[in-house]
Write a structure and sequence with these properties.
Shape: elongated
Strand content: under 5%
Distance between the termini: 70 Å
Largest sheet: none
Structural class: mainly alpha
Radius of gyration: 25 Å
Number of helices: 7
Amino acid sequence: MSSGVPAYTVVGMGAVAASVLGAPISTTLIIFEMTSDYTLTLAVMIAVVVSSEISHHFYDRSYFVRQLRERGIDLKEGIEAEVMQTITVNAVMRRNLSTVSMGTDLETLR
């Protein structure tokens, strides 16, 4: 499948998937696993690099990240940063804590 319409189809599919998902390496490896064709994989790598660079130019990271940003979710710093900005300390703080004195022995704690 190194040439012809099926090869062009697979190369195009890989380029679009890598650009939309923002996962160029994974997409290339998946296509190699599906086809076991080194020549086709090289063509996919070239197409994936070009499509990823175009996607980064227009959409920053990927199309999915752009959609999330339009909805007010910015994952640039990671999901943890997004969660930490939306939850207050007061909401997760425990107020009923047990305290132990310095001189308390283990038997008393049990």
